Amino acid sequence: MENCIIRRLRPEDADDINQISAAITNVPVEYDFKRMIEDQSGRSEDASFVAEREGRVVGYLIISILSGFFGIKRSAWISLLGVHPRFMGQRIGERLAEEGFKYCKFQGIKDVYTTVRWDSTDLLSFFKTLGFDRSNFINLRKKLDL
After folding, report:
1. Domain of 95: which CATH number?
2. At residue 105, what are phi and psi to the nearest 5 degrees?
3. pTM for the model
4. pLDDT tens track for 129-138
5. What gap in Å lies between CA 96 and CA 1, rounded to an integer?
6. Is 143 among the domain residues?
7. For the chain, what is the largest distance between any 2 Cα atoms, rounded to a whole number of angstroms?
8. Is residue 63 included in any domain, yes or no?
9. CA 143: distance to chain centroid?
10. Which residues span the domain enclosing 85?
11. pLDDT-based confidence at 16, cuts 50/70/90?
12. For the chain, what is the domain count?
């Protein structure tokens, strides 16, 4: 993790985030990260960061701060977290999360949420090491016929 810095997300990070996401999932990314990141960078309150090593983005964390949703107080939601596979195991994800938590505390936010697939044991384990536990939410889904 030498020479790794954590900084605020910038719109020009979109291509790097796209490449990291594709490297993690081994499938081409269909999501428009550029638009999402431009939206995020326009929100001064959201807590989104990247990890940069030798001038190259190697990880990202995108947190949205929401108020009044689902009948809960102002809270933070981790929507995306990723570290390039070549840099996993170097505590980069942990450092990104710590920076996000520090920012949330500064904003007076007490609760941070995320969603993880039940069969993603590695990701569940990672979030457990950060202090996450089950919340009082149940994810629901409805499939629509196209």
Report:
1. 3.40.630.30
2. -60, -45
3. 0.86
4. 999 999 888 8
5. 12
6. no
7. 50
8. yes
9. 25
10. 4-129
11. very high
12. 1
